[in-house]
TrEMBL record:
It comes from Ectobacillus ponti. It comes from the Bacteria. CDD domains: PAP2_haloperoxidase. Residues 122-224 form the Phosphatidic acid phosphatase type 2/haloperoxidase domain. InterPro entries: PAP2/HPO (IPR000326), PAP2/HPO_sf (IPR036938), V-haloperoxidase (IPR052559). This is Vanadium-dependent haloperoxidase.
Length: 234
């Protein structure tokens, strides 16, 4: 399929002469809950073909996405900047694990329950990273700073393709798993996850579509993992 959007591997970042280079290696790692089939298909552990819950980038209006981002960045608030910096400092997977441990303490989990919960959480996040990196490099969508506009970004732009946002996919996955184990805190978990994804938009390093579609994809992968517990959505 011919792409109708700007590619990450073809445009330099501001102040640079050559397009960025990254590593697609995580997209080829083996997974815990997902298997690679033939002809580019992916299967769950029951052998069912997975159709990913994410729009093809050809269907996204990237011009409108850029305009929305520019408008937001030029009307940035201190709260938005604080959110961007908080979630941009350290790894989002580590922050989701910190959340998981605090919830386990609130639920008075013992060591066996905590180990089981974190095993499912981190195996699901691992698979989410694999699929995210596979799609990032397959689709090769440019970052906002590659459109020749002077964007007042809050953080540096990562050196890998934009779509989907890894912050969003990891957060969406964590939401699915953590709301299963800790249903009494579902509303709070969802609030935290939305903020984590939105932080990348506030930082100026992702489009809104990167986040919205990333959350959908991450939730799907989290539920694929939960099916092994007999608890996920089918």
């Amino acid at each position: 399929m011919r792409t109708i959007y700007r590619k990450w591997s073809e445009y330099p970042y501001p102040g640079e002469q050559e397009p960025p280079k990254g590593s697609a290696a995580p997209g080829y790692w083996s997974m815990f809950f997902i298997e690679k089939g033939t002809n580019g298909q992916f299967l769950d552990l029951s052998g069912r073909v997975i159709t990913w819950s994410i729009k093809h980038p050809n269907t996204v209006n990237w011009g409108s996405e850029l305009a929305l981002l520019e408008q937001t960045l030029h009307a940035q608030t201190n709260q938005h900047i604080q959110i961007a910096k908080y979630w941009g400092t350290g790894e989002v997977a580590a922050k989701m694990n910190s959340l998981a441990y605090s919830l386990a303490e609130a639920y008075r989990y013992g060591s066996p329950e905590t180990a089981r919960m974190t095993a499912y959480l981190n195996a699901a996040i691992h698979d989410t990273c694999v699929i995210t990196w596979m799609l990032k490099y397959k689709w090769d969508v440019a970052r906002p700073n590659q459109y020749g506009h002077s964007l007042p970004t809050v953080l540096f732009t990562p050196r890998f393709p934009s779509y989907p946002s890894a912050h969003a996919t990891i957060s969406g996955c964590a939401e699915a798993v953590l709301t299963y184990f800790f249903p009494a805190y579902s509303a709070r978990i969802q609030e935290i996850v939305r903020e984590a994804a939105l932080s990348r938009f506030y930082a100026g390093v992702h489009f809104q579509a990167d986040n919205d579609e990333g959350l959908r994809l991450g939730r799907q992968i989290g539920n694929i993992a939960l099916r092994e517990l007999g608890a996920g959505q089918t």
